[in-house]
Request: fold
Amino acid sequence: MKTVKALIFDMDGVITETSENHYLAWKSLAGTLGFDFERAFNEKLKGVSRRDSLELILQAAGKATAYSEAEKKRLMDEKNALYLASIQGFTRENLLPGVAAFLGEIKGEGMKVAIASASQSAPLLVQKLGIEAWVDHIVDPAGLPGKPDPAIFLSAMDHFGLTPEECLGVEDAVAGIAAIKAAGMFALGIGDRTVLTRADLVIENFESITLKGLLEVAHGKNH
Ligand code: B16
Ligand code: MG
Reply:
């Protein structure tokens, strides 16, 4: 494989943990609409866009056709306002274990870092987490098909003018790993290897690996 020149990171579940914030915001919205929203169902929404999340929640509640387009827009805005309020206090303390040191290592090697998140709040989170200096590019997910489509990872790659072999994607969701593999890149999974079965390598968190160790595996792998 060619030398890796860029690492492309998902945000929620990789850089920081916002799934509880998304969950509580959807739960509160569901409560005002008169139905429940279980924590277990939230697992299905990881890495899923705001619009697709709303459709899945309404479907599960048997209300797929109950709301007009304008009402759905208002529901998404309400959920997002609750979510944004809940992440106002995010700081560097909210970075997942080992992330700060790992990003520092990448930049120390002169490699590129991109964020490929389904979240429209990724730029705000990058700022709140205090990692702007380490992030070269944040893909705008608006108008791009969601994961497992590879578009968001390919967009980051194109931004840097690189090939798939020169990029390494990092994800915590099954659909995200599928998107990285569809883009033709080496996929690093964060989480459980029995779940992220298509990843080329799975680690618990960034304290489990050094950049040098990761690149040795990636460069040794033909894919
Ligand atoms: P927003 P990721 C995803 O983040 C979340 O996992 C998912 O729960 C959320 O619905 C989605 O972002 C969209 O977020 O409403 O802020 O645009 O894992 O792709 O970083
Ligand atoms: Mg994620």
In short: The mean pLDDT is 95. The first strand starts at residue 6 and ends at 9. The CA atoms of residues 27 and 203 lie 30 Å apart.
